[in-house]
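It is worth pausing here to work through a concrete case rather than discussing structure prediction in the abstract. The textbook approach is simple: state the sequence, then state the predicted structure, then interpret. We follow exactly that order.
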Amino acid sequence: MNPADFDLQASVSRLFVYPIKSCAGVELQESLLIETGLEFDRAWMVVDEEGEFLSQRELPRMALIRPTLKYSEMVLRAPGMLALHIAFDRVEAPVRVRVWDDEVAAYDMGDIAAQWFSDFLSEPGGRKRKLRLVRFDPEHKRVSSRKWTGEVEALNQFADGFPLLVISEASLAEFNSRMQAAGHGAVGMERFRPNLVLSGIEAHDEDRVDEVRIDTGDGGLVLLRPVKPCARCTIPDVDPATAETGTAVNETLRAYRADPRLDGALTFGMNVVVLEGVEQALRVGQSAGANLRFE
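Step two, the predicted structure:
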């Protein structure tokens, strides 16, 4: 890949997966790209008795559930709880669940997992929640909105709507300069829950590029297309270390990130679809190139 062929040159600086939707992420040095994004990303989800998904919007303590990916299992830890081991090759009963407006096929992960999540996420002294952990059925096709992807059929597991989220280091640096100017402390990239972090480009260049080409080595290529700005809810205002909630992040975004492309929604980062490179490995340090989009 010749850098001279591109308007912008970048590199992959960080990679994250979020095995359980709305729980803590796992930072990796390498991750396999599959049709639905990075392997294990949003493969599991917490649901209520009606099969509706839950997130940090309702349950900020989900931020304190920290997965570790082992060879054959995922290990979950949370304050005051014994570790929960989830085997990659084991599921129980098939179920139907809802994530936003989509009803999808999934597998229940059993009573032990259900009890663990119910115990940790129930309010102390309050109503006992009856929660279940489910895993996405890989035979189910959940497709991103064609309004944004056009001719591309982009598949997802339990992500909000697109396979990947890309943010640049420069975008976070600019955001933090505004946070500090307003008298707030800087926040980490974890607040914004990206999959792919790019270095070497200017703030919000990810908003303005047509495609991102990543050289995976040995002639391998990953081709990604940013398709929709990521509208932000209250989750970036949840402190991932403590689960305490605030308002500073959204207040800061409101000052400069109201996006006319989404009728004034506050946006940060770009949702991305995969054009080429399924089964390629993404690694920290890989080179990337992109051309600016002119509309």
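Step three, interpretation. Residues 3-292 form a domain with the M1 Pyruvate Kinase; Domain 3 fold (CATH 2.40.33.20). The two ends are 26 Å apart (CA to CA).
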